[in-house]
Amino acid sequence: xxxxxNSPYLCxxxxxxxxxxxxxxxxxxKCPKCGEGHVFVQNTSFFSLPVMNEQCxxxxxxxxxxxxxxxxxxxxxxxxxxxxGIITFFLCFYLFPELPTFWSISLVLFVILxxxxxxxxxxxxxxxxxxxW
Length: 133
Known about the structure:
By secondary structure, the chain is mainly alpha-helical. It has one domain (about 15-130). Helices cover about 50% and strands about 0% of the residues. It has 4 helices and no strands. It has helices at about 15-20, 20-25, 70-95, 100-130. Helix 3 packs antiparallel against helix 4 (about 100-130). The chain starts with 14 loop residues before the first helix and ends with a helix.
């Protein structure tokens, strides 16, 4: 294949970002276009709500496209929470068979609550990667 730099079909990511795996970029919350910029504001307090950047600081890719765009990300976040709850329940059930039901349910709710912030961020980043503009 001829490497024509004027071709619109070439990937805009630098060679380093292309080598990173898709999953790694998701967990690092990187831009879907360049793979370098952060989707969320960095170094915020753990107890504050996550804030999205309006655009990528490296390539100016716009993250928030229109009102209601991230409604679909809510379903992804729900799926992550259900998966975490099921895994936690089965771990409790098989590793601690004598554990009372109250504590199993409490542990499942605790895991879902602790992972909620990451689920929120991960679902939005995954949604941006699934439906890029």
